[in-house]
Amino acid sequence: MSPSHRYESVGDGNIGLETEVVAPAYDAGSGNDEGVGYETSVPIHPKILAPLSYILPPVSGLFVVILERRNTYVRLHAWQSIVLVLATTLGSMLLFWVPFAPSAIHLAGFIAAVLCAFRAWRDADTLTFFKLGIIGDFAERQVLGTTVLPF
């Protein structure tokens, strides 16, 4: 986890549950602007970078995960985007034999991605993470370092 962010989880993994990524207090006298909460490795504001993760899944999510190392809020949304598209693809592959099921699953995944992108854009000022149940829980575990995937 980035040293410039503190993360507070508020719940047990329900869909649409909001959690907050809290930046530490800014000390104007120290000359250190690390506490602002909007610093990123990529010179793009989190209000644009977080929703960008959902635009072209999983490519844009992977792009953001690989390049962004400092901002927890952006990394949470990038991981949620990646896991959402993987879950959608897996679900449609498992139910390919049911008429219209793959189309319905992909439509639900698209609607979820649009909702998450909108919430990522809207909540960037408060750094509130809108998570999708177990998909959001997995993204939290990945960003916070409790999962052992290599990125």
UniProtKB/TrEMBL annotation:
Keyword vocabulary terms for this entry: Membrane, Transmembrane, Transmembrane helix
Keyword check for Transferase: no
Gene Ontology cellular-component annotations: membrane
Topology of the protein relative to the lipid bilayer: Multi-pass membrane protein
Principal subcellular localization: membrane
Signal peptide residues on this chain, from the entry's feature table: none
UniProt protein name: Uncharacterized protein
Gene source species: Coemansia biformis
